[in-house]
Amino acid sequence: SAKTQLDETLVGDVLQMVEEDVARRPFRAPVRLEVEASMPLALRDLILREIRYEDSGEVVRLGPQDVYVVDGLIDLAALSELASGSQRDDLLFEPMERKDPFDPDRSIFEILRESDRLVHFPYEAFEATAERFIREAAEDPDVISLKVTLYRTDPGSAVVKALSRARQLGKDAVALIEIKASFDEQRNIAWAKSLTAAGIHVVFSPLKYKVHAKAGLVVRREDGRLARYCYIGTGNLNNRTARSYTDVALLTADQEIGEEIQAVFNILTGYSAPSGFDHLLVSPFNMRRRIMERIDREIEHAREGRGGRIRGQLNGLADRRTIAKLYEASQAGVRIELAAREICALRPGVPGLSENIRIISVLGRLLQHARIFEFANGGDPEYIIGSADWRPRNLSRRVEVAVPVRHAAAKERLKAILDGVLSDPGAWELMPDGSHVRGRERVGGGAALGERMLAVAGQRSED
């Protein structure tokens, strides 16, 4: 098992505890065995028996039910090494054009004072948006504070370098690092040590919770007052994954949002106790309740004859209470369309239960990673983006942040993104029996998803 296993009742050096736990990982009991379909049954049984009775000092409960037969190659990720060293350009995807949505001759803070800006990765460049926001904050003499959450970041991260630069220039620099991020513990431990050595205030999450929120906060002196600028995204501050994961992020100078993001950082750094949030949805404090309230609102609209619709894109859907509420909404006549990339415990299309629910998965060149939710709200649609899936761990055991998107142009972009994903002609549709069917005829089909997304990314916020 690769999951970090820490005793939440212990008190001590969290960094040391995680380091020791990671060091023990290679000696833990395996949790599954993957074999090629061509492997003889006798050899498979022998391997399973050897693993189960290996003298490791730990009880291994691996049984026949934990053997997964793969019809094809095992560990397809290893093929990336072959692709990276290939001299056959005809076997590779064409390089993707990534746009710069901001005027390079203007301060990003000036741009954000005019209006909120929504960015869409990888169609818009991470370097020109998220990284630029952090870099400019580090160099700006009027910025007094820079704070970010780091769950997974890339080697040689420009964001981390900008934090160090900010501290060199005398700014208050804070990095909240999640050292329990699965498989990235060692890298995050190394970042934590280097940032601490640079004088940056490094904060670790409590043992009980992972900080999965994707947020940045800049505090700047302007005209005798303190102005706050925020970054709230669905993906990590990671240049590498921003090239192949679809994510969205909001950059805003909204002071109400800024004050609440400041409150989130104050809670995480121990400066204040949890308080109410009027605008943000924050796990584990109010996110589940706010989601339920919005679903209930759609139920009321449907029952009163004003229609009712929920659309969204997320990675996983497995929270029982949320699923029960979605079933209730379907029975009330609310139309629900969701793109769930991976785990989904909801069964759509079941007569009398979920016949108004449609679930698809989109698989392809890009990994669908955004969390976008649309609530029709009786003709005044509300859009929310954030870091959380609708799974128990996201709603109860992690610190997550989601934000309502208010700017009209940003809302139109989110609508277009959902239109494109939910009408993708190559999507896999989840059937009532749990099977998937690919490429069923859909309303609103047409251009390929990538082409539609490039067209969306080309729209300026002021359009």
Describe what you observe in this structure.
The structure is a single chain. It contains 13 helices and 20 strands. It has 463 residues and is an alpha/beta fold. It starts with 13 loop residues before the first helix and ends in a 6-residue tail after the last helix. The radius of gyration is 23 Å and the shape is globular. Mean pLDDT is 86; it is low at 1-12 and 441-463. The strands form three sheets. Strands 7, 11, 12, 13, 14, 16, 17, 18, 19 and 20 form a ten-stranded mixed β-sheet that branches.
Sheet with the most strands, sense and barrel status? 10 strands, mixed
Given as residue ranges, the uncertain stretches (5+ residues, pLDDT < 50) are 1-12, 441-463
> What is the residue-mean pLDDT, rounded to a whole number?
86
Q: In which range does the helix fraction lie?
A: 25-40%
Q: How many E strands?
A: 20
Radius of gyration: 23 Å
Q: Total helix count?
A: 13
Protein traits:
463 residues, alpha/beta, 10-stranded mixed sheet, 8-stranded mixed sheet, 13 helices, 22% strand, disordered C terminus
Strand and helix layout:
Blueprint: H1 14-24, E1 33-36, H2 41-52, E2 67-70, H3 79-84, H4 108-114, E3 117-121, H5 130-139, E4 143-150, H6 158-168, E5 172-177, H7 185-197, E6 201-204, E7 210-211, E8 215-222, E9 225-233, E10 245-252, H8 255-268, E11 281-283, H9 287-303, E12 309-314, H10 320-331, E13 335-340, E14 357-361, E15 367-368, E16 372-375, E17 382-386, H11 392-396, E18 398-405, H12 408-422, E19 428-430, E20 436-438, H13 449-457
Parallel strand pairs: 1-2, 4-5, 5-6, 7-18, 10-15, 12-13, 13-14
Antiparallel strand pairs: 3-10, 4-8, 8-9, 9-10, 11-18, 12-16, 14-19, 16-17, 17-18, 19-20
Helix pairs in contact: 5-6, 9-10, 12-13
